[in-house]
Design brief:
Length: about 375
C-alpha cells in the first residue's frame, strides 16, 4: 500500500472514537502527529496513542509534522479557517460536518478545495452503516420500485444540562439541525436524489444554563428540536424529525430510523441493528432481513465486521474511503460538494421554520 502521513486536528470524542481508530487500522497509514488548542488533551492523546508529535498551534503543526492529509474535528466555527490552512499546506482534507456555518460559507469552502486539486471529504459517517449500504442497493437496483414516501428520525434524550459549544449559534451555526439533522439530509439525498423544496418547524425547549457540575453558563440559543417535510426531485415525499429531548425506541433510549415505502416493497434501517434491516413486499408484514456480507463493509476495507460494537465500528470505513480516494486519485464520497449540498438544504429548513412557509432549495452545481 502507498504510504500516507495523516495528521489529526481536534482531539475530542469524535477523533478518539472515529478518526484515530479508523486511520490506525489501514495498512500504510501513519498517524504523523496531532493538534488541539488544549495542551492537556494533546499530552493525554500522545500518551494514549504513543505519538511523538503534538502541537497546540495549527501553523506549527503543519510546518513541523508536514502531513499529507488531515482530519479536522473541531467546533464548527473553526472549520473554514482550518480547511484553508490545510489546503494551503498541500494536504488532502476530511472535515467533520457541518462543513461550514452557513450555505454561502460552504460554497467558498468547496470552491477553494476544488481549485486546490486535493482530495476533500465531508465526514457524513452514517453513509457507512451496513444497513444503509444495503438500503442504497435496494433503491438503486429497483427492488423497492418507485419510492413514494420516506421518513427519517433521529430521537435522543440528552437531558437539559449544558452540552458545550454545540448549544451556541456563533460556534455551531445551528443546533439539532446541524448536529444530527444534516447527516440525515445527506444520506436521504444519497438514497433518493436532491431535495427541491421544504417546509419546517423548529423549537428550543431547554435553556441549558447549567453545566453538568452545577455551575451556571450562558443559555443555549439554538433549536433542540426540528422537523420538516420535503419534496425530492424524483417525486418522493419525505418527513424528518430530530430532537435532543425526545425519547426513542432503541435499547439505549435513542432512535435512528430511515424507512422507505416503494411501489413494490418497503425497507427500514435502524442504527441499533446495523447488520439487518426490516423488509416487506406489498401486502406483507415486515420481517428481519440480514445485511448480505458484501454490504457489511466497504470493498477492501481492513475492518472486521464481527469485531467490536457494530454500532460504532462501521464508522472506521469512513477513513478507508478517504484514504482509498487519495490513493486512487478519485473524488471522495461524500466530498465537500455533498457538505455544501446538505448545507443548502439546512439553510432552507431554517428559513422555512422562521418564515412558516415552503422554501425552495437553491441549485448546487458540482
Amino acid at each position: 500500500m502507498e504510504k500516507l502521513r495523516v495528521g489529526l486536528i481536534g482531539l475530542g470524542g469524535v477523533c478518539g472514537a472515529v478518526h484515530y481508530p479508523g486511520f490506525s487500522r489501514i495498512p500504510g497509514v501513519e498517524i504523523a502527529g496531532i493538534c488541539d488548542a488544549d495542551a492537556g488533551l494533546v499530552a493525554r492523546r500522545q500518551q494514549e496513542w504513543g505519538l511523538a508529535q503534538g502541537c497546540t498551534e495549527v501553523d506549527e503543526f503543519l510546518r513541523q509534522v508536514q502531513p499529507e492529509a488531515v482530519a479536522i474535528a473541531t467546533p464548527n466555527v473553526y472549520h473554514q479557517r482550518l480547511i484553508y490552512q490545510a489546503l494551503e499546506a498541500g494536504c488532502h482534507v476530511i472535515c467533520e460536518k457541518p462543513l461550514g456555518m452557513n450555505y454561502p460559507q460552504t460554497i467558498e469552502i468547496y470552491q477553494r478545495a476544488l481549485a486546490s486539486g486535493r482530495r476533500h471529504m465531508t465526514a457524513f459517517t452514517y453513509r457507512f452503516v451496513p444497513g444503509m449500504n444495503y438500503l442504497r442497493h435496494l433503491v438503486r437496483s429497483g427492488e423497492l420500485g418507485q419510492v413514494r414516501h420516506a421518513r427519517f428520525q433521529r430521537l435522543q434524550d440528552w437531558g437539559e444540562l449544558a452540552i458545550g459549544w454545540r448549544q451556541y449559534k456563533d460556534q455551531a451555526g445551528s443546533g439539532e439541525l446541524g448536529d444530527m439533522g444534516i447527516h440525515r439530509i445527506d444520506f436521504a439525498e444519497d438514497l433518493l436524489g436532491p431535495i427541491e423544496v421544504v417546509c419546517a418547524a423548529a423549537r428550543q425547549w431547554a435553556s441549558r444554563d447549567r453545566r453538568p457540575d452545577g455551575q451556571p453558563c450562558s443559555p443555549q440559543d439554538v433549536e433542540d428540536w426540528v422537523a420538516w417535510i420535503c419534496e425530492f426531485a424524483g417525486g418522493t415525499t419525505g418527513i424528518f424529525e430530530m430532537g435532543k429531548l425526545t425519547k426513542g425506541r432503541g435499547p439505549d433510549g435513542g432512535h435512528d430510523l430511515a424507512e422507505l415505502n416503494g411501489t413494490e416493497a418497503s425497507a427500514t434501517y435502524q442504527l441499533h441493528t446495523p447488520h439487518q434491516i426490516l423488509y416487506a413486499r406489498r401486502g406483507e408484514p415486515y420481517q428481519v432481513r440480514p445485511v448480505p456480507a458484501e454490504f457489511l463493509k466497504r470493498p477492501g476495507s481492513p475492518r472486521n465486521p464481527g469485531e467490536g460494537d457494530p454500532v460504532q465500528t462501521f464508522r472506521y470505513d469512513q477513513a478507508w474511503e478517504f484514504v482509498s480516494a487519495i490513493r486512487q486519485g478519485r473524488e471522495c464520497l461524500p466530498s465537500f460538494y455533498h457538505g455544501m449540498r446538505a448545507q443548502a438544504v439546512a439553510d432552507a429548513i431554517l428559513e422555512a421554520a422562521a418564515s412558516r412557509r415552503w422554501v425552495e432549495v437553491p441549485p448546487c452545481q458540482p
